[in-house]
Amino acid sequence: xxxxxxxxxxxxxxxxxxxxxxxxxxxxxxxxxxxxxxxxxxxxxxxxxxxxxxxxxxxxxxxxxxxxxxxxxxxxxxxxxxxxxxxxxxxxxxxxxxxxxxxxxxxxxxxxxxxxxxxxxxxxxxxxxxxxxxxxxxxxxxxxxxxxxxxxxxxxxxxxxxxxxxxxxxxxxxxxxxxxxxxxxxxxxxxxxxxxxxxxxxxxxxxxxxxxxxxxxxxxxxxxxxxxxxxxxxxxxxxxxxxx
Amino acid sequence: xxxxxxxxxxxxxxxxxxxxxxxxxxxxxxxxxxxxxxxxxxxxxxxxxxxxxxxxxxxxxxxxxxxxxxxxxxxxxxxxxxxxxxxxxxxxxxxxxxxxxxxxxxxxxxxxxxxxxxxxxxxxxxxxxxxxxxxxxxxxxxxxxxxxxxxxxxxxxxxxxxxxxxxxxxxxxxxxxxxxxxxxxxxxxxxxxxxxxxxxxxxxxxxxxxxxxxxxxxxxxxxxxxxxxxxxxxxxxxxxxxxxxxxxxxxxxxxxxxxxxxxxxxxxxxxxxxxxxxxxxxxxxxxxxxxxxxxxxxxxxxxxxxxxxxxxxxxxxxxxxxxxxxxxxxxxxxxxxxxxxxxxxxxxxxxxxxxxxxxxxxxxxxxxxxxxxxxxxxxxxxxxxxxxxxxxxxxxxxxxxxxxxxxxxxxxxxxxxxxxxxxxxxxxxxxxxxxxxxxxxxxxxxxxxxxxxxxxx
Lengths: 244, 457
Prior knowledge:
The complex is a heterodimer of chains A (about 240) and B (about 450).
Chain A: E1 2-6, H1 11-22, E2 26-31, H2 34-48, E3 52-56, H3 65-76, E4 79-84, H4 92-97, H5 99-127, E5 130-137, H6 148-168, E6 173-180, H7 200-212, E7 217-220, H8 224-233, H9 236-239
Helix pairs in contact in A: 1-2, 1-7, 5-6
Chain B: E1 5-10, E2 17-24, H1 29-37, E3 42-46, E4 61-65, E5 72-75, E6 81-85, H2 90-97, E7 102-103, H3 115-120, H4 128-131, E8 138-144, E9 150-154, H5 159-165, E10 174-181, E11 183-184, E12 189-197, H6 200-208, E13 215-220, E14 232-239, H7 250-258, H8 275-288, E15 293-299, H9 300-304, E16 322-329, H10 336-347, E17 355-360, E18 374-382, H11 386-401, E19 405-406, H12 416-422, H13 426-436, H14 445-449
Parallel strand pairs in B: 2-4, 3-4
Antiparallel strand pairs in B: 1-2, 5-6, 6-10, 7-11, 8-9, 8-10, 12-14, 12-15, 13-14, 13-17, 16-18, 16-19, 17-18
C-alpha cells in the first residue's frame, strides 16, 4: 500500500510521511525539486526500513497531473493515501500590487490542489478505496485584509474538499480536511504570536490519528476550532473595521 | 531571503546567554543562502545547544539553527557506515539502529546532542580508553566554508581542514554531513557492574583492573574530605551478548513508567541547589550503594544517559545557570593534580552536584580536541558568582601546571592566557582556520574570548 505525499518539503507533510512509514506503508514523496524529494525519500527508507521514493511534481503544471497519477500507480501500485500538502503563503502586499503574484498564490493553493485531487479522486472512486487528506488553513475560514489572497485560495480548497467528500463518501473514499492554525514551520519561524505555535511532529500524529478514526474535517491544533468559531461569528459590520 | 528573528540562545549551563538574529535552516540549501543573506555579520551554527558554555553562542552576529537538518543520507547495513546530516541526534541514531544491531561508536552523557556538535566538540564517552573519541569513527565531513563552497574533507583530502574541524567548535565552517561508523551490537542491554570505591586510591586500583571493560566511569563524591576524599561509585560495562535478559528492579520498573512525565518545567529557585542540599545528595548517593560490588544487565539508556531521564534538569540550578568544569591531566604517580583539584573545591566550601572521573586512553587529535591521555574529572557548580569563578581560576592554575587542559565544550570563563598554555597547538589550529576563513565569518563568543577568531593578540 503506498502513501503519496504531495509537497513533501513541508515539515508537516514530511512528519506525516514518517508516521505512515512507521506503520509500514511504502511512501512516494514529491516536491518541485526532484533531488530534494529523493533525499527525503532516502531518509524515510533508512529510518523506517520501508520502500520510499522521490519524484518531481509541479502543482501548477495542471496538464501533467493526470499522467503523473497514472505513472505513480504504474510504478508503485494504487495510491492508498494521498496527502495534498503543498502551498505557498505569498506576500499579501505583493499580491495587491501585482496580480500575477496573486494568481500564482491562487494557482498553487487552489487550482493546483483541485486539479491533482480530481486526478486522484477518479482513480479512488473507480476502485472504491482510498483516502485523500487535504491540508488547508484557518485563514480560509474568513477573509482578512492581511492575507485574503492566500486565505481565499485556501477557503476555496476547503469548500472543494467538502464537495469532494460529498461525492466520494458514497464510494468508500475518505476525504479529510485539515485546517491548520499556527504550526512551527518556515512561515511562522520567529513570529511573535499570542497563540501557541504547534510542532509539526505533534500535528502529524494528530493527522494520522484522525485519518484512522475516519474524521471528515478537523482543526489542528484543536483549540483553533473555538477560535475560528468566534472569528466567524463576529458580525461583518464590526469585522470589516478590524485589523486582523 | 531568510527569515531572521531575534532569539536569546544559551548553552546547557544557561550561563551566559546571548541575543542574536537567528534563522532556521529547513533544508541543506538554506545554509548557503543564510550565509549569503547574512550581510556583514559574523555567523555560527547552533544545534541542540548542549555544549555548556558559550561555544555555540554569538552576540552581534547571526546564528543558523541546524536542528531540522537531520536527514539520514546513506546507510550500509553490512558495514555500519551511516551518512547523516549534522542535525541528526544521537537519540535518533539509537532509535533507528539499536533494533538493527548497531550503536553509535561514541556517546556522551546525553542523547540529545547533534552529530555536528559531537564532531565540533570531538566528544568522548565511557569507552575512550578503548575506542578513542568521536572523530576516530568519522571518515569524512562536508563543510560549508566561508566562501560558500562545500568541501568534503577527510584524512587525505584537505586534511588540515578535517583536522581543524575536529574539536574546532564550529569555527571552520558549518558542518553539513558526515560519515560515521556505527558499532555492531547484539543486544540493547549492557552488562554492568558497579563497585563502591572508598577513596581516590581505591578508585585508581579498581580502575586499573577494569581495562577489560569497554565502558568505565565513576561517580565521585566531591564533598567528603580527608581519608575518604574521592570516594564514589565505579561503573563498568560492555554491550551484552545476544539473548541477555534484562534485570529491572521494582524501582527501575517504576522509573520506566514515570520517565515520559519527568521534566523540570520551570526554573528552580536559586536557593534550591545550595551547599547543604548538594552535600546531602552526595552523601545519600554514596550510601545508597551497598559496600562492594553489584552486577546487573541494564538497558543502554540508564547506563549511558541517566540524566536524560529528567528533561531540562539544568533548570534545577535556577535562572542563574550552572558551570561545568571538566579537566584532563596526564597520569602522575601520586595523582597530585586530581587530589589538589578536589581539595581546592572542598576547601572553598563549594560542592559539585554531579561529578564524574574517568581515565582516558591514548587517542589524541591535537588542535582544539579535548581528550588526552590521563585522568578526566567533571564537576557541576551552580553559578554562585565571583567566589566560584575565582576558585575555577585556581583550578586552571593546577591543571595548566600539571600539563592538562579544560574542555572548551563545557567552558564559559577560562582566560585566553591559560587557554594558550593548555592548548599549545592553538596557533597551528588558528592558521588553518584563518586560511579557510580569512575574513572571520565564523565566530562565537568562546572564539572571541579566547582569541581564536579575529587578529591574534
